[in-house]
Each structure stands twice: as structure tokens, then as C-alpha cells.
Write a structure and sequence with these properties.
The chain has eleven helices and twelve strands. With about 350 residues, the chain is α/β, with parallel strands linked by helices. The two termini are about 25 Å apart. The structure holds 1,4-dihydronicotinamide adenine dinucleotide (NAI) and magnesium ion. The site of magnesium ion (MG) has 2 residues, from helix 8.
């Protein structure tokens, strides 16, 4: 019998390709997961059920409390809200965690990047409070920030940093100009920091932070910020370690967690078998740790590092020529070898 039932949303674009790769790798790790799969979200959901986010999907995630999700395209023109934003808001997944770390064999400008971005995931400029006054021709988007919303993402970030032995927390804001809303976030960060004396705390204005991250990323450790800044800075940090094909993510709330990579549906390469599944595989490693499957997580992680160190079976975005599927098969072989080695040594 399966020990875990996990909701699986392959998404669209490169989503199904990278999701298949993850399923191949997790099968090799012999984690007892039964997937509850929904293909009809986003545009496909609209066609099949008249809604981009069918209620059955939300019910499944609420029941299972864990989901693995591929990217979902948000068309610029059609009249439905982003499935990604809706999912995070409806399930109150307030903490978006995005670790960015170098991989062996992936050449980048910096070698010692090891950052974790904590992005507030439910409010700020993505609150969805938007109006357009036809008569005055004025568009408003409200960047609502609440004290409770700020406190809970900050608490999450500091607790995570403490539990994982991290050294430093930088709060990122724009309180010099957007004084009331991002000022509230900054004020809460300054108030909470003394509760974590072992973590060095400082804060930066977002534009300056962007520059410092591209000049000296190795000096930063944990970064906590509001929704829009976190969205932008996490793609920036993905670039520091080799691109969007490599960086995982997790959306975590008190009742459920949805694991998804930072990248989108990559329409420019979808269907070409070029997508790098590493980002979603690292995302699955985060999910395994969340489930308490740390041995399987460790096996997949060491197999992944081994494959990158070998350098022969990489996808095009990181200088190789492997297809998505071939990469997954090579990784699955190594996962099996690592797992069997662990079984033999009994560790
Ligand atoms: P994107 O992240 O899809 O792609 C940006 C660039 O990175 C492209 O050149 C793409 O080929 C490359 N890339 C992304 N993932 C890759 C991978 N795994 N392997 C190799 N290369 C990869 O961003 P873009 O083009 O701005 O957005 C496309 C669509 O995705 C939009 O509709 C957007 O709304 C949606 N999106 C969805 C997200 C989600 O479901 N969580 C997150 C971000 C965007
Ligand atoms: Mg983004």
C-alpha cells in the first residue's frame, strides 16, 4: 500500500516533460507515492471545465496536504487570473521558499552561491485588488501588506534559518519610497530580528540589493521579502547559479504545501525535449524532506550531484546535449545505485 498520496499537477508547456522526469526518478528511489493526477488546469481546465483551477484540484490538495506542480501558463490576454497566484491565495500558502545553490560542473560567474529566498506569497502587489476607471482612464493595483502577513513570513524565514543553521538574514524592502506598505514589512522585520540573536540581521533597499546580488552574491545567505521583490530577485538568483532550469521552490502554508520550481512553462522550448528537469527534481527533493523521507531525498540529491560532476549527461541549458528523458534515465540509474549502496552498508 502507498504511504503517501500526493496531488500531481503536470501543468503545461514544459510542465508534463519535467514532471515525467521527476516521476521516473522518484520511482527509482522507491518512495511509496501514489499520485492523484490532474491534467486540466490553466488553459486545459478552461476548455474542459470552464475554469482554470477546478474545485476538485483544490479539494485534492486540501485532502493530501502535499502537491507537486509543473508550471502553468498565464496568458496575457485571456480573462482568467493566474492559476499559480490563485492556488497560493486559496490555500493560503504564504511562504515561498527558493534555495539557490551552485551545482558542480555548471560554469557560472560565482562559485560559492548558497542563498535562500523567502518570498511572501499571498499579498503585496499580487493581492489581486485591481481596478480600472474607464472614465478617468486610471488603472490601480493595490499592493496590500498586512502586519499579520508580514509577521508570518518573517517568522517562517527566521525559524527556517534557525532550524537549518543559517547565519544571516537580509530583509529587502523599498521603505524609503513606498513608506506605508513596505515600511510596515521592514518595521516587523526589525522588531522580530532580536528574537534570533544567533542570526546576523540587516536590511537593504531592493534596487541596491539587486546590484549587490549580481556583484557579491556569496556574501548573502537568507533573504526575506515581499511578493513582487521576491519574484524578481528569485529569477535573478536563479541566473547566478546557472539559470531557471536548476532552481527549486516550495509554497508552504499551515495546512498544505505545493512544491513547484521557480521557472515557468518555457513556451520557447516546450515540446522540444530540451527542458532541464533539475529544477523540478530539486523541488521533489524538498518535497521528500517535507514528507520526512530524508533517506530518499539524500539518495536523489547525491545521485544528482554525481551526474553533474560526471558532466556527460547534461541538458542544453547547462552546456550538454541530453534530452529531458535521457537525463532522467541516467539520473534514475544513479539513484538506484546510491540506494542499493545505502542498503548494503545499512546506513
Ligand atoms: P519561463 O521561466 O517559462 O522561461 C524563461 C526562460 O528560461 C526561457 O528562455 C526558458 O526556455 C528558460 N527555461 C525555463 N525553465 C527551463 C528549464 N526547466 N530548462 C531549460 N530552460 C528553461 O518564463 P516566461 O517565458 O517569462 O514565462 C512563460 C509562462 O510561464 C508565462 O505564461 C508565465 O506566466 C508562466 N509562469 C508560470 C510559473 C508557474 O507556473 N509557477 C512561474 C513563472 C512563469
Ligand atoms: Mg516568477
Amino acid at each position: 500500500m502507498s504511504r503517501y498520496t500526493v496531488t500531481l499537477l503536470p501543468g503545461d508547456g514544459i510542465g508534463p516533460e519535467v514532471t515525467d522526469a521527476v516521476c521516473t526518478v522518484l520511482r527509482a528511489a522507491e518512495v511509496p507515492i501514489e499520485w492523484e493526477r490532474f491534467d486540466s488546469v490553466g488553459h486545459a481546465g478552461m476548455e474542459a471545465h470552464g475554469t482554470p483551477l477546478p474545485e476538485a484540484v483544490l479539494e485534492s490538495i486540501r485532502r493530501n496536504r502535499v502537491a507537486l506542480k509543473g508550471p502553468v501558463t498565464t496568458p496575457l490576454v485571456e480573462g482568467f487570473r493566474s492559476v499559480n497566484v490563485s492556488l497560493r491565495q486559496k490555500l493560503d500558502l504564504y511562504a515561498n521558499v527558493r534555495p539557490c545553490r551552485n551545482l558542480p560542473g555548471v560554469e557560472t560567474r560565482f562559485e560559492e552561491v548558497d542563498l535562500v529566498i523567502f518570498r511572501e506569497n499571498t499579498e503585496g502587489l499580487y493581492s489581486g485588488i485591481e481596478t480600472y476607471d474607464e472614465r478617468l482612464q486610471i488603472a490601480d493595483s493595490i499592493a496590500r501588506i498586512t502586519r499579520r502577513g508580514s509577521q508570518r513570513i518573517l517568522r517562517f524565514a527566521f525559524e527556517w534559518a534557525r532550524a537549518n543553521g543559517r547565519q544571516r538574514m537580509t530583509a529587502v524592502h523599498k521603505a524609503n519610497v513606498v513608506k506605508i506598505s513596505t515600511g510596515l514589512f521592514l518595521q516587523e522585520a526589525i522588531a522580530m530580528a532580536p528574537e534570533y540573536p544567533e542570526i546576523e540581521f540587516d536590511h537593504r533597499i531592493v534596487d541596491n540589493m539587486a546590484m549587490q546580488l549580481v556583484m557579491r552574491p556569496e556574501e548573502f545567505d537568507c533573504v526575506v521579502t515581499t511578493n513582487l521583490f521576491g519574484d524578481i530577485l528569485s529569477d535573478l538568483c536563479a541566473g547566478l547559479v546557472g539559470g531557471l532550469g536548476l532552481v527549486p521552490g516550495a509554497n508552504i502554508g499551515d495546512d498544505a504545501a505545493v512544491f513547484e520550481a521557480v521557472h515557468g512553462s518555457a513556451p520557447d522550448i516546450a515540446g522540444h525535449k530540451k527542458a532541464n528537469p533539475t529544477a523540478l527534481i530539486r523541488t521533489a527533493i524538498l518535497m521528500l524532506r517535507h514528507l520526512g523521507e530524508s533517506a530518499a531525498a539524500g539518495a536523489v540529491e547525491s545521485a544528482l550531484l554525481q551526474l553533474y560532476r560526471e558532466g556527460r549527461w547534461l541538458t542544453r541549458d547547462v552546456g550538454g546535449s541530453c534530452s529531458t528523458g535521457e537525463f532522467a534515465l541516467r539520473l534514475a540509474e544513479r539513484v538506484q545505485n546510491v540506494s542499493h549502496a545505502i542498503d548494503r552498508t545499512g546506513s
